[in-house]
Design brief:
Layout: H1 2-13, H2 17-28, H3 44-60, H4 69-83, E1 89-90, H5 91-98, H6 102-115, E2 125-130, E3 133-138, H7 146-159, H8 169-183, H9 187-190, H10 196-199, H11 214-226, E4 228-234, E5 242-254, E6 257-264, E7 269-274, E8 278-287, H12 296-300, E9 311-318, H13 321-328, E10 337-340, E11 346-353, H14 356-363, E12 369-373, H15 375-391
Antiparallel strand pairs: 1-3, 2-3, 4-5, 4-8, 5-6, 6-7, 9-11, 9-12, 10-11
Helix pairs in contact: 1-2, 2-3, 2-6, 7-8, 14-15
């Protein structure tokens, strides 16, 4: 990468005096508006560039921009910044760091695409999007080797949340992908990754054990991948097991467990099955059309957890500063709002679809949270707390 950048910068800084003046002129002349701190003038190089600009004006009868050394310095800072940011640098951050406008940054990029190219003539700086943010990075041929190490670490950290899938077909597939990805890392970088298993770790919490559900998971993954209908013998929390013909839409992970969302032909609705309660899963020859209007985000929108229920406006009283700080640092629900009261306490309000999981979440905070409304939820939580208190008398 450093050789590539050096080769590109050589186009800016010289293959002889005439080339240096011309290259710097083409790069530096992009910065005549929207930039703070212009450089000094009056060198022989600038005189030569001024003469060329005068000649160009006579030929094209168009005004030429005076180059500045400040812009050349900023271009150098831009390249140096990209070298130290293998995952990219946002437009806003670049503009703030260099003290330039967006218009000036775009002119810089246009000049860099002409002047800073690799041996195949491809620009070594590229623009891309990360969500809503516009980003810059060094192109694939010019990325630092360190970026490969970062990719390995990020992949491993993301995979660490799948610890509860040990012994299943899903974990075996992920492990194989990990091994192949690790082999793609240059040997010089692998030595730096020797301790990454200790540096990146996810603490397991009340994870479900799926080692005895490998057959079910294998069938689920096949039917999901091929839009195949399944027959599911499902045992609910209460009541007799029921058999469903089921079109699987999504395999989702929630709080250390696996669930399948899809349409039950028995119920005529989209429902959610817990994988560990599937006593038997059979693939059927029938296929189904994956619904265009469905998405797991839309289906789960507003639900507190994964158990759906009626839409309910909830207000909770947070009684102490420590609990408030703990909750304010988390995204509990998309509709959450914190409203301080004059007595120093805080009201947390949100509108949820279903309160079954919410009530148990509230119970976990004991005396630190009080339900203000709705009355039905307040009474339900109060009854559970009173029953728990009686157990300790």
């Amino acid at each position: 990468m450093r050789r590539t950048v050096a080769a590109g910068m050589a186009k800016v800084q010289g293959r002889g005096e005439a080339v240096a003046c011309g290259s710097i002129a083409s790069l530096a002349a992009v910065d005549t508006t929207g930039v703070r701190g212009e450089g000094a003038q009056g060198t022989d190089c600038e005189t030569a560039m001024a003469e060329r600009a005068t000649k160009s004006r006579k030929e094209r009868r168009a005004p030429a921009r005076k180059p500045t050394y400040g812009s050349a310095a900023r271009l150098g800072r831009l390249l140096y910044g990209l070298l130290s940011r293998p995952r990219g640098w946002s437009f806003d951050a670049v503009e703030s760091e260099l003290g330039i406008s967006e218009r000036t940054l775009l002119r810089y990029l246009a000049a860099c695409r002409r002047e800073l190219v690799d041996s195949d003539g491809r620009p070594i700086i590229e623009a891309f999007r990360l969500g809503d943010r516009r980003m810059l990075r060094l192109a694939e041929s010019g990325k630092m080797e360190e970026s490969a190490a970062y990719q390995v670490l990020f992949l491993y950290f993301a995979m660490s949340v799948f610890q509860f899938l040990d012994g299943t077909v899903i974990k075996e597939g992920v492990a194989d992908l990990w091994e192949r990805f690790l082999r793609s890392v240059p040997a010089a970088q692998r030595t730096r990754l020797g301790d990454f298993q200790r540096k990146f770790y996810a603490v397991p919490h009340a994870m479900k054990d799926y080692r005895d559900f490998d057959a079910q998971l294998d069938t689920i993954v096949f039917c999901l991948s091929n839009n195949r209908r399944m027959r599911v013998d499902y045992s609910g929390m209460l009541g007799e097991p029921k058999v469903h013909e089921f079109d699987p839409y999504t395999l989702l992970m929630y709080r250390g467990g696996l669930y399948v969302v899809g349409r039950s032909h028995r119920r005529g609705a989209i429902i959610t099955f817990a994988v560990e309660r599937m006593r038997h899963v059979e693939r059927l020859p029938d296929t189904f059309e994956y619904p265009e209007g469905y998405s797991p985000e839309k289906h789960s929108q507003g639900i507190f957890g994964i158990i759906e229920g009626p839409q309910t406006a909830v207000e909770l009283l947070i009684k102490d500063a420590q609990t408030r700080a703990y909750l304010e640092s988390r995204r509990i629900h998309p509709t959450q709002q914190f409203r301080p009261r004059r007595d120093g306490r805080t009201v947390l309000s949100m509108t949820v679809r279903g309160t079954d999981e919410l009530k148990y979440w509230i119970l976990g905070f004991g005396p630190h949270i009080e339900v203000l409304r709705p009355a039905a939820l307040r009474n339900e939580v109060a009854a559970l707390l009173n029953a728990a208190a009686r157990a300790y008398r």
